[in-house]
Specification:
Blueprint: H1 2-10, E1 13-15, E2 24-27, H2 32-36, E3 44-47, E4 58-60, H3 61-69, H4 75-86, E5 90-93, H5 100-103, E6 112-116, H6 132-137, E7 146-149, H7 152-159, E8 165-168, H8 172-175, E9 188-193, H9 204-220, E10 224-227, H10 233-243, E11 247-251, H11 259-264, E12 266-271, H12 275-282, E13 287-290, E14 317-318, H13 323-332, H14 338-346, H15 357-366
Parallel strand pairs: 1-4, 2-3, 2-5, 5-6, 6-7, 7-8, 9-10, 9-12, 10-11, 12-13, 13-14
Length: 368
């Protein structure tokens, strides 16, 4: 709590002027540049919402004072006051996992609210859907006009607590980066997508998977690249100690890392529970999914493709944590038509809409 107050009052960048009216308000600065690229610079205002969690966020003191003078002291009130000043025609956010976005009052009926799914969702406590019962109970006070989702099925779950038009678009972030079908030379034999978290103990099932993957690499005489989820020495040391001579390169998550371009260089990609694994499959890459979490709820929502109904085991996915399954899935992609099979079976889970044509069409139809 102390750190939150410190961030909020001392580590934020203070803005003293009243927000200007803009056509577009982006709710949340995280990944806001991905949205803003589709509009003219003078059309967009970004509302920072992570002042208690991150440093270098903008805090508008003019809006804050106006909120306090109205005897309102919640962040929700601050956001709504900010929206009132900007008076946008469209509110857009990639923060689909923040319940408050659905609870915000729109300053007028003509304002449209667009919520874009940022990542794959589960029913774990870290995800909003873990409180689905509460969300459904409060459906009458939630509002949204458009839900841009990975697929229809997750859209149905969101529709259970907020009425909005669902438009399946796949991953907005991945769609923003063009894939290069002319890229023939693949420089990475096996790319593993890490979901390492410095503050969490590595799960036992992950250690078993890594042991089997290392054994496979040694047997086949190939090297593995690890796509890091952090830029910490802790993660780098962990994978170096885990794979030893079988790891060719650890690719840290730096600010300028071209993640999707790295993905496009890989011959085969392995994923346990990463959103990037699904994004890579939608981009036409050969991806093996190892859904090796517990079958008990809520970990069961890590099942391949959830909430789309899929068998527990398929051509390129499995819920079995064994050497034979690693071998089976990698060998599947040696078949001539394997990639076509993968793209057909992944389509109802996530698709690829290059340059977000559906989003641009929606904006055009709203006639801002």
């Amino acid at each position: 709590m102390f750190k939150s107050y410190l961030n909020f009052f001392f580590l934020t960048k203070k803005i003293f002027s009243k927000p200007k009216e803009k056509k577009i308000l982006i709710f949340d600065s995280d990944d806001s540049e991905i949205i803003s690229r589709y509009f003219k610079k003078d059309e967009v205002e970004t509302l920072h919402i992570r002042m208690a969690y991150k440093s270098r966020q903008n805090l508008n003191l003019y809006v804050l004072l106006k909120t306090f003078l109205g005897f309102k002291f919640s962040m929700k009130s601050y956001y709504e006051e900010y929206i009132e000043f900007v008076n946008p025609k469209i509110i857009i956010t990639l923060s689909d996992n923040w319940p408050i976005i659905y609870d915000l009052k729109k300053n007028r009926d003509k304002t449209k609210k667009i919520v874009i799914q940022r990542a794959f969702r589960t029913c774990l406590p870290t995800d909003m859907l873990s409180n689905l019962k509460y969300l459904k109970q409060n459906k009458t006070k939630f509002n949204c006009d458009y839900l841009l989702m990975f697929n229809e099925e997750i859209g149905k779950i969101y529709n259970s607590f907020v009425d909005a038009k669902v438009i399946p678009i796949g991953s907005f972030r991945s769609n923003s980066i063009s894939k290069n079908p002319k890229l023939k030379r693949k420089k990475i034999d096996i790319l593993f997508i890490s979901t390492f978290r410095p503050y969490l103990k590595v799960k036992n099932e992950d250690l078993i998977f890594f042991k089997n993957l290392k054994r496979y690499c040694i047997k086949k005489g190939i090297k593995i690249h690890v796509l890091g989820s952090t830029n910490t020495d802790l993660e780098k040391r962990f994978f170096k100690n885990t794979f030893k001579e079988s790891m060719q390169l650890f690719l840290s998550k730096t600010e300028n890392r071209s993640t999707y371009k790295i993905v496009d260089l890989a011959k085969i990609i392995l994923s346990i529970d990463s959103t990037l694994g699904y994004e890579a499959a939608a981009r036409g890459k050969n991806v093996g999914f190892f859904c090796i979490r517990s079958k008990k709820f809520p970990l069961s929502t890590f099942k391949f493709g959830w909430p789309v109904k899929k068998n527990s085991k398929g051509n390129f996915w499995t819920d079995k944590n064994s050497y034979s399954e690693i071998s089976r899935i990698i060998n599947f992609y040696k078949n001539k038509n394997a990639n076509k099979v993968m793209q057909k079976k992944i389509k109802d889970v996530i698709s690829f809409d290059q340059n977000n044509k559906s989003f641009k069409s929606l904006i055009k139809n709203l006639k801002i």
